[in-house]
Structures are given as C-alpha cells and as structure tokens.
Amino acid sequence: MILEEVKFTKNDKADFYKELRKRVNTYFKDNDISKYANAAMVIKTIFMVSLYLVPFILMLTIVESSWLVILMWVLMGLGMAGTGLSVMHDANHHAYSKKKWINILVGKVIWIVGGSDVNWRIQHNVLHHTYTNVVGMDEDIDIGNLMRFSPGQKLLKAHKYQHLYAWFLYGMMTMMWSTTKDFTQYKRYKEMDLLKTQKISSRTFLATLIVTKVAYTVLTIGLPLLLSPASWWVVILGYILMHFIAGLILSMVFQPAHVVPTSEYSEVLEDGSIELDWAANQLMNTANFAQNSKLFSWYVGGLNFQIEHHLFPNICHIHYKKISDIVRDTAFEYNLPYYSYNSFYTALKGHAQMLYSLGHNEDAPAIH
User: For the chain, which residues make up each domain, given as ranges?
Assistant: First the structure.
C-alpha cells in the first residue's frame, strides 16, 4: 500500500482535535511555558546517558570482580532503556528543542545503544504514529509470524502460546536492533521509497549503518573483552543480559499502550480510506497507565501518557501530566474514549490477556 493513497476520513469527530489543539496551546501560552525541554529535562538526559556510560567506563578501568562486572551490565541495561525512553525518543520526535540541530544531535544518541535514528523515525514517526493499529500499515503490530498482535494477521498454531513466550522475545528486541533488524528495515524502506521522508540517500544511509554498527560492536563488546579482567564468558553473558533488560523494559512500556483489550483495530478499505478520523483512531487504539506514579513516569519518559504522546508527539514528555486533564475532558465532551489503567501491573495484565485472545481466537477483537 502506497502511503500517499491511504487517507483517514474526516467525520463528525474531526472537530475534536482542532478544539483540543486550541486548548493545549492556550495552556502553554497562558502559563508562559515552552513546549520543549527544560532544565529538569537536561538533568534527566545527563543522568540517563551517564547510567549507560559510567558503568561501562568503570568496567574497563576499576571494576575487577565478575559479579560487579555483571552488575555494570545490568546498570547499562537500565541506562539503555532509560536513554531510549526519556532522551532519544523526544529528540527524534523533534520535541526536545525548538532548534533542529539539537534534536538531530540528541537523537543520534541511539547510535551508542546500537540503533538507527533514521529507521526509528520511519517505523515510529511515519508508520506507527500516523497509522496506529491500522492493519497493514503500522509495523509495530506486524513483526512477522512469531507474534500475532492484530486480528489482521493469520493465526498460527504457535500463537497459542505467545502469551508465554512473548516476554523472552521482548528481551531480544534491542539485540535484533543492534544486529540484523536495521539492515532488513533499510532494504524494506528503500523498496517502499520511505527513505525520502528522512531526506537521505540509500547509499549514504547504508554506509552510515555499516560504520555505526561496526563501531558499536567493537566498542561495546571488543573493549570489555580486551580490557576487562573478567572472563570472556562473563563479558558475553553481561552483554546479552544488558540487551535483554533493555528490550524487556522497552517492550513492556510500549506494548500495553496499544495491544490491549480496549484496542479497536482499523483497516484500510479498498478505496484507500480509513473509516475513522486520525485523532479518533489514536484514542480508540491507545491506552495510558500508572498516571499517578511520578517515579515510574519519570523513568519511562512520560510514555505512560501514551494518549497525550500520540496526539502531541512534538511536545516534550515532561508536560504530558499537566495536559492530560485537558485531553481527557475534551475527549469526553466529544464522546470519545480515554482509556487508562490504574497501574503498570494492570496494563501488563491487559496486554497478556490480549496476547492470549489473539493467540486463540481468529476474529478477536473485531476489526472495524
């Protein structure tokens, strides 16, 4: 499906987003607040990146005990996830700063954790944020035959157990990013002519991928093998553990926002239209969770406020809590849903229930 041919339908809900933007803009104007990062966000950036880099440096210079080396890798896993959720994410949404070059620079922090900012923006910004839970368009709900995230996918026998094995696969996510996934995405996005959305040539992008992947592997695995006093198997085990922790955290934050029982998957009709209005589609396919947990929200980059993030991806996450009441009240005024789980646990439980349902029932939930 060619992206330009797919269009959301402007219906009686279209006025909702117009009014919501007006109210949110008024909030920032009346309170004389910038929509971008503030000093607290800069401090968080330094903390998260340090949580990833400092243990690595200590591992190479001071730490000698194998158990402490493993602990350094664990801290790096927490730092990797925190950096992705709280720093890289905002920057690649152009929400970190009003200055383009700062967003570009901070967004490239994904390189030091083994990813690609170009591929990330295509998959996340262009496909996922535009076509959230739209079958055949949103790659976040189509990861191949291993998992069934939507009723639009073929139900296989193995999916019967996906609610059990999903958590292991989630832990492998960033490992895949750092090795094969970016190259398969490069090939796919080149064929789909999506690289033009990032204003980069395929040759330049491929060269960047190769250089950054080699540099990441040499620095992250090579240096510890050479300089750490720990045995080689401790280094390899720690490296795998770091990625597993980061991948599991990232998946457990993102998946309960969309693959949950409240989600109402949309499909593209034969004429290329989607029955819902864009903003209505976001509300019907997104859920918040643990909105009152300050520490949790701080660590996950405000992504427990997924509704606010999907409606206003260009606003820094530090503002989501403040504008959430505006979003909720406006949604209710227009008879639109505002789904929110009380806790992170209940959100994860809902996601597990959805995995079970999709793994056992051909038509659950129904596509509209």
Answer: 3-360
- C-alpha to C-alpha distance for 33 and 40, rounded to whole angstroms: 14
* Nearest residue to 297 via CA among 343, 339, 241: 343
The amino acid sitting at 15 is D
Q: Confirm if 243 and 167 have CB atoms less than 8 A apart.
A: no
E strands, 131-250, are 134-135
- Which of the residues in the chain have pLDDT under 50? 367-368
> 200, 153, 208: which is closest to 358 by C-alpha?
153
Per the structure block, which two tokens stand in for 180?
């094969």
pLDDT of residue 309: 98
Q: What is the pLDDT of residue 110?
A: 96
Report the C-alpha gap between 184 and 1 in whole angstroms.
19
Cβ-Cβ contacts under 8 Å for 259 (sequence gap 6 or more): 141, 149, 150, 351, 354, 355, 358
Among the residues of the chain, which ranges form H helices?
14-30, 39-61, 66-83, 89-92, 100-107, 117-120, 162-171, 173-176, 182-191, 202-217, 223-227, 232-254, 278-284, 294-299, 306-311, 320-333, 344-360
Q: Residue 267 belongs to what H/E stretch?
A: strand 266-267
Q: Taking every pair of C-alpha atoms in the chain, what is the biggest distance, in angstroms?
A: 66
CA neighbor of 289 nearest in space, from 353, 345, 357, 335 = 345
Q: Which residue has the tokens 């730490």?
A: 63
What amino acid occupies position 245? I
Q: What is the DSSP letter of 294?
A: H
As a whole number of angstroms, the distance between CA 229 and CA 26 comes to 58
d(CA 70, CA 49): 19
What pLDDT, on a 0 to 100 scale, did the predictor assign at position 2?
Answer: 59
Closest among 36, 53, 83, 50 to 299, alpha carbons compared: 83
**Type of residue numbered 258:** H
**Cα–Cα separations (whole angstroms), residue 190 to 122, 132, 272:** 11, 22, 22
The residue written with tokens 């009240």 in the block is 329
H helices, E strands: number in the chain: 17, 6
